[in-house]
Structures are given as C-alpha cells and as structure tokens.
Design goal:
Blueprint: E1 3-8, H1 12-23, E2 27-32, H2 35-45, E3 49-53, H3 61-70, E4 79-84, H4 91-96, E5 101-105, H5 109-119, H6 129-132
Parallel strand pairs: 1-2, 1-3, 3-4, 4-5
C-alpha cells in the first residue's frame, strides 16, 4: 500500500521535482502551495509524512509544523522542513516546532528519498556508509608448484 506524502511549497518547480522523485516510489504525492492549505489538507488526508517549505505564504513551514505537532490528531505525522540555500534555517525554531528533520534546497534526490523513507519507517536502497568502506576479501592467488 503506498505511503502518502504531502508537499507544501510555493515553488511549482520544487513541487514538480519532488513529484518526479517519488513517481517511481511507493508514494502518493499531494501538493499545496501555502501553509494554510498544508494544515487543512494534513488534517483531512492524514499523510504519512509532510514536507513543508520554511518560507511560504499563509503560514511558514515552522508554523505549519507547530500547528500539526500541537494537534493530537496530527502530532505523530513526521514533518520534514525544506529550507532554501539563501534562506537562513533557524535550528532553534525548528526544534521548538518539533520538526523531525530538515533538508536544504537544492537537494540530491537520493538524500531526500532516504530522509523521507527513514521518517516513514522504510528501508532506503542506498548502501550504508559502513558498507562503502568494507574491505572486500581478496581472491586467492594460485601458488606455483614447488
């Protein structure tokens, strides 16, 4: 059964990019362009995860997160904040809002996928860092007869 993802970002480009990233995954994506719609759609749809831009009309991602985490019916839904490269990300405000994680735009597709899958409790397809540094066993070299 697909997981439901709600993306709240005023950038049509970001909404489309995220839609494409999750198109081949087992996710149903719903997109809104402002914070007020993000809160109402989250209460209506009960998505498995919410991605909210920290700077958007209506309510900021921080305010969306605060509202969702303060509502007993939505407080368990993970919220991933999206911050632009040129926007100052307020770590303290994110903690106060009880955000589950954040990512800076532009982001690598696989990193976003990994963060979202972690938040919804799915295993990601990327190799863990420890596996990347594992030493492969050496093949046996034939010993010349003495």
């Amino acid at each position: 059964m697909p997981k439901n993802l709600l993306i709240a970002d005023d950038s049509l480009t970001i909404r489309k990019v995220i839609g494409m990233i999750f198109a081949t995954e087992d996710f149903q994506v719903t997109a809104v362009d402002n914070g007020l719609d993000a809160i109402s759609r989250t209460r209506e749809l009960r998505p498995d995860v919410v991605l909210a831009d920290v700077m958007m009309p209506g309510k900021s991602g921080y305010e969306v997160c605060e509202a969702l985490k303060s509502d007993p019916s939505t407080q368990a839904i993970p919220v991933l904040l999206l911050a632009g490269t040129f926007e100052a990300f307020d770590e303290n405000r994110a903690k106060a809002a009880r955000a589950d994680d954040h990512i800076t735009k532009p982001f690598e597709s696989q990193i976003l996928l990994d963060k979202v899958k972690t938040l919804v409790g799915q295993k990601s397809n990327t190799m863990p860092a420890s596996a990347a540094t594992r030493v492969l066993p050496q093949t046996a070299t034939p010993v010349a007869p003495a």
